[in-house]
């Protein structure tokens, strides 16, 4: 009784690919800021507003949220036996993740359109 897409290779692969992107992006940020760190709010806004950086940040946000969703979903499916409680936890988690993603994209959009 398994639903397609809820378990198996696809979520495992998505989580691994997102982890690789997250890792590479964090290394990129550490190296970049060690070499040339933005010093004030205007420097930060200019850095974020460049197209390559804003796209990389958006992809990072999507990767982190997708990675978190798969991880939390797997834990809930494995350790919450009550179907109603499982549905409630997954719904609340999904709402928080969607809300966080919308908030992050709004902040990124506002910075790139200044």
TrEMBL record:
One GO cellular component, as annotated: plasma membrane
Signal peptide (from-to): none
GO molecular function: electron transfer activity; heme binding; metal ion binding
Organism, scientific name: hydrothermal vent metagenome
Cofactor(s), names only, from the UniProt record: heme
Keywords: Cell inner membrane, Cell membrane, Electron transport, Heme, Iron, Membrane, Metal-binding, Transmembrane, Transmembrane helix, Transport, Tricarboxylic acid cycle
UniProt record, GO biological process: cytochrome complex assembly; tricarboxylic acid cycle
Annotated metabolic or biological route of this protein: Carbohydrate metabolism; tricarboxylic acid cycle
Stored InterPro entries: SQR/QFR_C/D (IPR034804), Succ_DH_anchor (IPR014312), SuccDH_FuR_B_TM-su (IPR000701)
Transmembrane segments: 12-35, 55-72, 84-105
Main location: membrane
Localisation: Cell inner membrane
Name of the featured protein: Succinate dehydrogenase hydrophobic membrane anchor protein
Membrane topology term: Multi-pass membrane protein
Role, per record: Membrane-anchoring subunit of succinate dehydrogenase (SDH).
């Amino acid at each position: 009784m398994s639903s397609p897409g809820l378990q198996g290779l696809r979520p495992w692969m998505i989580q691994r690919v997102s982890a690789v992107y997250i890792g590479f992006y964090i290394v990129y940020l550490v190296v970049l800021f060690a070499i040339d760190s933005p010093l004030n709010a205007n420097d930060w806004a200019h850095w974020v507003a460049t197209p390559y950086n804003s796209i990389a940040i958006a992809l990072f946000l999507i990767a982190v949220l997708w990675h978190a969703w798969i991880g939390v979903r797997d834990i809930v499916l494995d350790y919450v036996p009550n179907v109603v409680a499982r549905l409630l936890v997954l719904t609340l988690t999904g709402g928080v993740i969607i809300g966080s993603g919308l908030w992050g994209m709004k902040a990124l959009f506002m910075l790139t359109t200044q």
